[in-house]
């Protein structure tokens, strides 16, 4: 944004102020997000007696990661089936001469 304003002819001090405002907004939104996460974790993991409740912490994977793992396993099995070429038992055809390249007349 700062470069665009300078190229368009705006004074440099105005471009610098806009850049500072954007940087402060990014920093403030990051800080608010981190603070919100910490507050949610504290209220969900600590009880009224100020003890850490490990039973409230789930040991299983979140559903989105479990679905991702399941999808990847399905894709792996599918790709393995495509790469795996079935063995053909050509002994019977070879004994009858059906696979020979010579045409007998």
Automatic annotation (TrEMBL):
It is a multi-pass membrane protein. InterPro entries: UPF0014_fam (IPR005226). The keyword Transport does not apply. Keywords: Membrane, Transmembrane, Transmembrane helix. It comes from the Eukaryota. The chain crosses the membrane at residues 21-46. It is found in: Membrane. One of its GO terms (cellular component) is plasma membrane. It holds the Pfam family UPF0014. Belongs to the UPF0014 family. This is 14878_t:CDS:1. The lineage of its organism: Eukaryota, Fungi, Fungi incertae sedis, Mucoromycota, Glomeromycotina.
């Amino acid at each position: 944004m700062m470069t665009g304003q300078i190229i368009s002819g705006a004074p440099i001090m105005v471009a610098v102020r806009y850049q500072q405002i954007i940087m402060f907004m990014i920093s403030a939104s990051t800080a608010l997000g981190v603070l919100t996460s910490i507050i949610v974790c504290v209220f969900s993991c600590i009880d009224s007696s100020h003890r850490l409740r490990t039973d409230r912490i789930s040991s299983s994977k979140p559903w989105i990661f479990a679905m991702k793992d399941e999808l990847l396993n399905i894709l792996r099995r599918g790709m393995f089936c495509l790469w795996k070429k079935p063995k053909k038992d050509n002994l019977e055809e070879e004994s009858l001469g059906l696979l020979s390249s010579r045409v007998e007349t």
